[in-house]
Amino acid sequence: MKIGIYPGSFDPITYGHIDIIERASKITDKLIVSVLENRDKHPLFTVEERVQMIENAVKNIPNVEVESFSGLTVNYCKEKNASFMIRGLRAVTDFEYELQLAQTNRILYDKVDTVFLLTNLKYAYLSSSSVKQVIEFGGDISNFVPLYVEQKLKEKYSK
Ligand code: ADP
To answer: Catalytic site residue 42?
Structure first.
């Protein structure tokens, strides 16, 4: 059984992430989308809220599970018996960061391979942070995130 882990902040999940999840689910027997609890970042949503939004977005994809984890991603991969770590690539700027991350992970644990999926051109510009910037100033984010996520964002910014 080929288990893939798609780790990330997902603060919040966007159509760009969902596109990667749909495609990654086709090349793995089981895909675990995992929210990383990272104390260095200051997320807008709690881990539980992020997990819930992902669950809602992927409910129709049968071989996808959603979890959260903290600590080293490679240790989490080991624990889950995963063979692949999935990451998305948008631009050259992503590449430099992702390459360093993948090489470090490979040295830490060589039984898991990082698989990069190129962004769908439709979503090449899209990031969780740009979504937050647009909604903060009242812009239309319906092309960026599912309705459920849009509602959660509106609730956050109305507080
Ligand atoms: P992280 O903090 O781990 O970068 P993100 O939630 O920002 O968490 O991203 C998780 C993964 O999804 C990364 O590999 C990132 O490059 C990828 N990703 C984010 N947005 C897109 C997009 N629009 N298209 C393709 N991949 C994306």
So the answer is: no
- Say how far apart CA 91 and CA 106 lie, in whole Å: 22
Catalytic-labelled residue, pool 50, 80, 90, 152: 90
Please count the other Cβ atoms lying within 10 Å of the Cβ belonging to residue 142.
Answer: 9
**8 CB near ligand 1 (under 6 Å):** yes
DSSP H or E stretch at residue 157: helix 147-158
Q: Each residue's pLDDT tens digit in the chain (159 positions)?
A: 999 999 999 999 999 999 999 999 999 999 999 999 987 779 999 999 999 999 999 999 999 999 999 999 999 999 999 999 999 999 888 899 999 999 999 999 999 999 999 999 999 999 999 999 999 999 999 999 999 999 999 999 887
Answer yes or no: are the C-beta atoms of 123 and 43 closer than 8 Å: no
- What is residue 146's three-state secondary structure? coil
